[in-house]
Amino acid sequence: MTKNKGALDGIRVVEMGQLIAGPFCGQLLGDMGAEIVKLEQPETGDQMRHWGQGDKPSWWRVIARNKYSVAVDLRSEDGQQLARDLIAKADILIENFRPGTLEKWNLDPAELRKTNPGLIVVRVSGYGQTGPYSARAGFGGIGEAMGGWRGIVGYPDLPPARMGVSIGDTLAATYGCMGALAALHHRSKTGEGQIVDSALYEAVLQVMESTVADYSASGTKRRRTGSTLPGIAPSNVYPCRDGEYLIGANQDGVFARLAAAMGRPELARDERFATHRARGARQEELDALIAEWTKTMTIDELEARMVEAGVPAGRIYDAEDMLADPHFKAREALVTVPDEELGEIRMQGIFPKLSETPGSIRRPAPLRVGQDSAEVLKRWLGCEV
Q: Which UniProt keywords apply (predicted)?
């Protein structure tokens, strides 16, 4: 644990989220120094407490770090009043329920902001707070499908695939965090809070590059292409004697360096491969040439050549590789967090790295629902429980 306070020191956040999207937004703000008070349903708590893989699922330890757990029954009048009292003292409220849920619980953001005009309310949902689909249930995978991501992931002769992580949820949470930071800046000038409306499908849509623009301009639809991107070559995973290795040399100068490392500098002058468009048009042919070369070497041998040649390339890492890598260690990309039940947990650190006000993990995830209720109510509201 560290005593570093972070750039958002002094900012108070009430998190009413559950599962991934809302809580990940809270994690990001907490990592940057904000105080995160998580309201959990008594006894059951957030289902994320039980998510993860292996016989000791530990996702909760990551997503709930830097948070305080307060037990509140939001379905009861007393619980709703307690939530209102806490929100009145907060700078930011995060929620990721279906639109209309807060209003049903007598926690309409418009009413909350009458009591606390500077309140910023981050609302993360599947389809946003408005529009004909707003009332629909929407998980991350649905947002990925609607936003276009699922349709382009996988191989053309197989159904759409997914990433191995919940990218739609985390993108929507990240955009919610960005919105909160922008709203804090606006509040610093005006004193006024506002609503941040982050939709899962729109967060995915934002990172879809020129998918819509290309169709609008030329009627071109991006399709599933496996491990490659059409027209971007060479940029693929290539076989070695002991595994696979990723090489990205699709820029002209970089490709020339790759060709020289292959012992075939003439490829960079060959009209079939000399330009970006030419390489893209002969993507399969070029990939086959490179694969014939890479499979004669081990990953270590190939990596040494790529480093020497200055070609962007890298191993395909899993968690074990990350823990063993000296670069991860040097940059503290992975950190150790003490845990009452599991001893110590290794997890990702704080990103991005700020030079003057770096983020930190100041406290581990709360292991018991409501374990911090008394402390928070006394400190925030002056109440004894």
A: Transferase
Taking only the tens place, the pLDDT of each residue in 167-217 is: 999 999 999 999 999 999 999 999 999 999 999 999 999 999 999 999 999
Segment 19-60, tens digit of pLDDT? 999 999 999 999 999 999 999 999 899 999 998 988 889 999
Indicate the DSSP class of residue 377.
I
Domain around 361? 12-207+329-381
Confidence check: pLDDT of 84 > 70: yes
Shared domain check, 108 and 78: yes
Count of other CB atoms within 10 angstroms of residue 53: 8
Query: Nearest Cα to 297, choosing from 242, 334, 347?
Result: 242
Using an 8 Å Cβ cutoff, are 60 and 38 in contact? no
CATH number of the domain at 154, please: 3.40.50.10540
CATH number at residue 243: 3.30.1540.10
**Does 42 share its domain with 121?**
yes
Give the model's pLDDT for residue 384.
Answer: 72
Q: Is 168 in contact with 126 (CB distance < 8 Å)?
A: no
Is there a contact between 205 and 150 (Cβ–Cβ < 8 Å)? no
Considering the domain architecture, whether residues 37 and 127 belong to the same structural domain is answered as yes
Closest CA to 120 of 180, 67, 32: 180
pLDDT of 229 reads 86
> pTM of the predicted model, to two decimals?
0.93
Q: For the CA atoms of 382, 195, 28, 80, what is the dihedral angle to 10 degrees?
A: 40
Give me the active site residues, please: 169
Say how many Å lie between the first and final Cα of the chain, rounded. 28
Write the CA distances from 171 to 13, 199, 200, 356, integer angstroms.
20, 9, 7, 26
The pLDDT assigned to 164 comes to 86
Give the span between the Cα atoms of 45 and 43, in whole angstroms.
Answer: 6
